[in-house]
Amino acid sequence: MAEKKESLMGGFKAFLMRGNVIDLAVAVVIGAAFTNIVNSVVKGIINPVVGAFGTKDLESYSSCIKDSCAVVNGEVQGIQLQWGLVLSAVLSFLITAAVVYFLMVLPMAKILAKRAAHDKAKEGVAETMEISELEVLKEIRDHLVSQRGPATGTGSGTGTGSGGGSGTHPTS
Q1: Is the pTM of this model over 0.85?
Q2: I want to staple 58 with a disulfide (CB 3.0 to 4.6 A). Which of 50, 100, 126, 154 is the partner?
Q3: What is the pLDDT of residues 87-126, one digit of tens each?
Q4: Are 78 and 66 in contact (CB under 8 A)?
């Protein structure tokens, strides 16, 4: 039994120590803190500005479906739709999405595009170097063959003879 408990805990520890889990936990904590900031901006700035154009705070806007929605003894009579709360939540979402897109997604996409272009250019340079290297080696081979060409008839194959005594001279 103790063996199973240790392996279970070992697996759990390995799961927690994976890089993705730790990164995700950090992202959730930062996201929660950022959500509090956005909610504060919406409640503290946007709702009062919208309320300045209307008669009350944005979250206070509501409509009645049934009856008059009068408050009797602290209870609302009738069926009330609190569309101001929904609109406030939608604004919070839109602000959060805009900040995430413009401050995180868009710059990261640009960085990844630059990296991909750099890698592609680097690959092209490597391929060009490979081709040019091959071309240089072919030119060297062709040059060596052309240097060797006239002397190959003697059978020595080197093309560099000392010129001494092996051939017949017409003057003798």
Answers
A1: no
A2: 50
A3: 888 888 888 888 888 888 888 889 989 998 888 888 777 7
A4: yes
Where would I find the H helices in the chain? 2-17, 19-41, 47-53, 83-100, 106-148
The Cα–Cα gap between 42 and 95 comes to: 9
Across-strand partners of 66? 79
Write the burial class of residue 12 (CB in 10 Å: 0-12 exposed, 13-18 middle, 19+ buried).
exposed
Taking phi over 0 as left and psi of -120 to 50 as alpha, with beta for the rest, 120 belongs to alpha
pLDDT tens across 5-48, in order? 567 888 877 777 776 777 788 888 888 888 888 888 888 887 78
- Count how many Cα atoms sit within 13 Å of the Cα of residue 102 in the half-sphere of its side chain: 6
Dmax over CA atoms of the chain, in Å, equals: 143
| Alpha-carbon distances of 131 from 87, 91, 117, rounded to whole Å | 63, 58, 21
Cα–Cα distances (Å) from 159 to 6, 72, 155, 156, in that order, read: 79, 118, 9, 7
Of 158 and 144, the one with more pLDDT? 144
Write the CA distances from 63 to 54, 71, 76, 158, integer angstroms: 14, 13, 12, 104
For residue 79, report the phi and psi dihedrals to the nearest 5 degrees. Answer: -105, 120
